[in-house]
Write a structure and sequence with these properties.
Elements lengths: L1 E6 L5 H12 L5 E8 L5 H8 L4 E3 L8 H14 L4 E4 L8 H6 L4 E5 L14 H10 L3 E8 L9 E8 L6 H25 L3 E4 L2 E4 L2
Parallel strand pairs: 1-2, 1-4, 2-3, 4-5
Antiparallel strand pairs: 5-6, 6-7, 8-9
Helix pairs in contact: 1-6, 5-6
C-alpha cells in the first residue's frame, strides 16, 4: 500500500480525483494518510474530512519566519510516514530539506505541457492566461517529480488538451482539469504504486 500525503492550497479538485479513483477502484494500492494545507480556509480540508482522511493546516502566518514554517511543514509530512508526497495545487515553495529527504518521492501536477508555460510565476489561472495570450492551439497538463528547480523535475505523464476559439482562462482551466489533470494524476499514482515508474539520469521510464 502506497502511503500518500497530499498537499493542497485551495479547492482540492485533484485531491477529489484521487479520492474518487481509490473509491471506484481505478486507483489501487494507494492510501491517502494525510492532507496538508497552508490555507486554513482551503476547501480541500473539508474534502478530506468528508472522506475520513486526517488533515492539518500548516500556515506561514503562524510562524515567525520561513525557516520555522519549513520545519513545521517537514514535521507534519514526516509524522504521516508517507511513501509519496503529492503536490496537488500547493502554492508553497517546497523546502530543500523536504525535497532532499523525499527525493523521487514527491510529484506535482502542473496545468501545461512542460516545458511550456511553467516555472516561476506560472500557477493557477496565470498559466491559462499565458496560453491564451500566446495563441497556442494545444495545452494540457503534466505530472512530474519535484526537484529543487521550479517545474524542472523528471516528467512522468502528460496529456494534451485542445484550446478552443473563444476560451476564457476560466473555461480553459476547467477543460484542462477535466480532460487532463483529473486523469493523469490518478494514473500516475497507480503506476507508482504498482512499481512501474523508475527514474534514471533525470528521465522517467515506465514498465509495461
Amino acid at each position: 500500500m502506497l502511503r500518500t500525503v497530499v498537499c493542497v492550497s485551495g479547492g482540492g479538485t485533484n485531491l477529489q480525483a484521487i479520492i474518487d479513483g481509490i473509491r471506484q477502484g481505478s486507483v489501487s494500492d494507494v492510501q491517502i494518510v494525510r492532507v496538508v494545507s497552508n490555507n486554513k480556509n482551503a476547501y480541500a480540508l473539508e474534502r478530506a474530512a468528508q472522506a475520513g482522511i486526517d488533515a492539518v493546516c500548516v500556515s506561514p502566518r503562524d510562524y515567525a519566519d520561513r525557516e520555522q514554517f519549513n520545519e513545521a511543514l517537514l514535521r507534519e509530512v514526516d509524522a504521516a510516514a508517507p511513501d509519496l508526497v503529492v503536490l496537488a495545487g500547493f502554492l508553497v515553495v517546497i523546502p530543500p530539506a523536504l525535497i532532499r529527504k523525499y527525493e523521487n518521492r514527491i510529484i506535482n501536477i502542473h496545468p501545461s505541457l512542460i516545458p511550456s508555460f511553467c516555472g516561476t510565476g506560472y500557477y493557477g489561472l496565470k498559466v491559462h492566461e499565458a496560453v491564451l495570450a500566446r495563441g497556442v492551439k494545444v495545452t494540457g497538463a503534466t505530472v512530474h517529480f519535484v526537484d529543487e528547480g521550479t517545474d524542472t523535475g523528471p516528467i512522468i505523464m502528460q496529456k494534451p488538451v485542445a484550446v478552443m476559439e473563444g476560451d476564457t482562462p476560466e473555461v480553459l482551466q476547467r477543460r484542462v482539469m477535466e480532460e487532463a489533470e483529473w486523469i493523469i494524476l490518478p494514473e500516475s499514482l497507480n503506476l507508482i504504486a504498482g512499481g512501474k515508474v523508475k527514474v534514471s539520469a533525470g528521465r522517467v521510464s515506465i514498465a509495461e
